[in-house]
Structures are given as structure tokens and as C-alpha cells.
Amino acid sequence: MIKNGLLLLIGLFAGSLAAYAQSTVRGKVVDNTKTAAPGVSVQVKGSTTGVVTGGDGTYSIDVPANGTTLVFSLIGFATQEVVINGRSVLNVEMQQSSKSLDEVMVVAYGTAKKAPIPAPPPSSNKMILKMCRLPPSRMPWWAAPQVCR
User: In this structure, which long-range contacts are made by residues 40-47, counting pairs with CB atoms below 8 Å and at least 24 apart in sequence?
Assistant: First the structure.
């Protein structure tokens, strides 16, 4: 009885490992001029698993056992879907998209503190002398103590 229970436990454990088996796929992505393509999104199709290529165009991604296709995408290039077929190295050449960006709209959200713009320094010496009579706390930014000596 203990032997049968132990065999059942080992069978369940081995089955669960097979279900969570992953393989690592790596490679390099280049553009149509054979130049490294940094910033390419590499994602397992149908999942949230993904990476971005480095500055030299290389990537490494852990693909779950049920992952069969990698999706490569970059703005200005056609999205490519590559079937893995058990390979551990996938090098991809991105092709420029025939679609171009006609307009780019930048939207920013945030806050900014409104501050007055400081007045420029006066051009007459009389005005500078008049400012030098002010206490230091009320002196304008341009009227440094060295000027008023």
C-alpha cells in the first residue's frame, strides 16, 4: 500500500514538472540593413510573457511548454510571428513597414507650478542705485550684494 502511494506521488510530481517545463529561446534581431535592432518587443503569443531586445539586438526569453510562437514588433517595422518548432536560437530580420506615421500626437498629464518670470536687470545706473537701498530680503535676484557695495 505504501509502495503504491509512493508511486502515485512520484507520478503526480513528474506530471506537474512536465506541465511547467520551460525552454529558453535566445537570438538576435536585426533590421533590413543587418543593423542590430534595439527595443524590439519579443512576446510569447497568447501570453503576457515578453522581453525587449538590448542595445545589441539580442534577447533571451523563457518560453512555457505550451508556447509555440514568438511575436516580434517595433514601431516602423512589420510585426513578425515566428514558430519556435523546438529551436533554442531564433535570429530575426525585421522588415520596414509600408505604413508610415503621418501624425504623432504627444499627450502629457501632470501638474506644473506657475511661477512669475523674474524681471530683467535695469539698464540705467540710477535704477541700480535705487535697488541697492532696499533691504537684502526685498532685493531683486539680479542685484547681487557685490553690485551694491
Answer: 40/72, 40/73, 40/74, 40/77, 40/94, 41/71, 41/72, 41/73, 41/74, 42/70, 42/71, 42/72, 43/70, 43/71, 43/73, 44/69, 44/70, 44/71, 45/69, 45/70, 45/71, 45/81
Confidence of residue 18 (pLDDT cuts 50, 70, 90): very low
Domains of the chain: 22-93 (2.60.40.1120), 119-149 (no CATH)
Per-residue pLDDT tens for 52-109? 999 999 999 999 888 889 999 998 889 999 999 888 899 999 998 876 556 666 666 6
pTM higher than the cut 0.85: no
Strands (E) across the chain are located at 22-30, 41-44, 50-52, 58-64, 69-73, 80-83, 92-93
